User: What shape does this take?
Amino acid sequence: MELPQLKIFTNNVASALQENNYDGVVVLFTDKKALLNVVPSVKSWMDLDASFGDEIQLLLPNDASPASRVLIVPTGSLNNDFDDARRFKDAAFDAGKRALKAGMVAPLVCFADAPAETELSWTFSEQDDYKHYLEVTMLGFLESTFEPVDVRDHHERVKQPLQVFKQLGFVAPNFDGSKVDEMIKIVSAIEAGRRVAKDIGSPDPERMSPIQVVKYLQEQFKDSKNVKMTVIDDIDAIKKEYPLAHAVTRASLAVPRHHPRFVHFEYVSPDQDKVKENLYFVGKGVTYDTGGADIKCSGHMRDMSRDKCGAAAVAGLLKTIELLQPEQVNVTAGLALVRNSVGSDAYVSDEVIYSRNGTRVLVGNTDAEGRMVMTDLLCEFKERVLANKKANAPSSKAPSLLFTVATLTGHALRAYDCYGITLDNGFARKNKVSKRIHDAGHILADPFEISTMRREDVAVVQPGRSSEDVVQANDKPSTMTSRGHQYPAGFMLIASGLDKHGLNHEHPIGFTHLDIAASAETTSAVGWSLPRVTGSPVAALTGAFLL
Assistant: This one.
């Protein structure tokens, strides 16, 4: 789905309307008195109705206002202790939806009382939470006009055009005109990545089975000159290289269309002398999670087609990387695309399975499958880091940071509601990885909470007998387990062998676990439907590591 044409104007609304074909004006404001500077006729409405401006309203002014139809959009308070950039994102999303309903396909967006300045310094400042209000607003409007691939397929099937924006203009007189093209490039790249994430994450488990996800990604990256994509589809190879993931997907092998796939991406900076970090991302792509033999009951299987959103986000991030071509990072990524089915060959609790690292894993709960499908990829990337160190590759002097990205636990929702969670091992904490994700997400309206990996998270998965080396889980849901979103990271550390590469090791390796169970979707749905997929954490990761 193509993005609408984006333009930023550094003059004024009247000039922008004269020079371009826009079919309406959208005015965002915080103080309703500021509307008088853009739409003078609102004074009469304010005099008649004390609640005027408290919600989105479509006006048809008959005075010297800038357009024949004007949509006024309150952001809400910006000055309370707990306000943040989502004020602009939420206002922009709601405004975009309302503008489309009004029939606008090319709105011009302006700000009656915008924050004083914006710049491309993507570093969080406690003094300016709204430094990037313009980018956040642009992303909010782009989000409002997007429909995922299954919806696009339907509209093509019934030969009905989608109602989307053709172009979007933004008036920001205080913005540095020399940086317009750079900002549009960054916003477009973030949005392109989010759209890939939503295209994979949103559709049903048949439309985006492992095989169908691969077909979609092959189309997305078929012309890429800087991102290499490879696919492992041989079941015997998956069993050998990723034995824990193979156990999870065993029951799905009876159905050929549900067969697993592993996808690798490789991005190499065009200038290795500028590389500051080597990043490795593992994405959980469970295209449907029945819970396996420990089956999800009492309605808890609902929404489990979205258990692939970790892999979806990692794939989206690679699309953003393809477009931005950052010089300061090398990026490797792996997607574990499996279906956790239930059947006669399902893996079961009490099995002891060897991981790629040679660690004996005692299965405690087959519904704790996400950590299983990611651990062997994590181990593989650890091996690559060590091989590069041994070969003394040019970039091997830069820190190596490994990430798992997953809709992993219900505990994440209980602990932090709608926010993504990030937690570090010692080396990642030393490199302020979680803080960077938190800070970038804060100013880009893709917020995260920082959690902490503690000794208890490693102690609780220790073996209780000589038959195992690590315990995968207990027999309770994560929501009923103390530190339910933290201890899976401890398990992955041990089962992958990363626990041997801590701060005091000759070759320390950073590990950061992102549990996006809460942020990958909106927290509410319409009626009995499913929530909307958000594309998180593409924006936060872009701000933290690529800009």
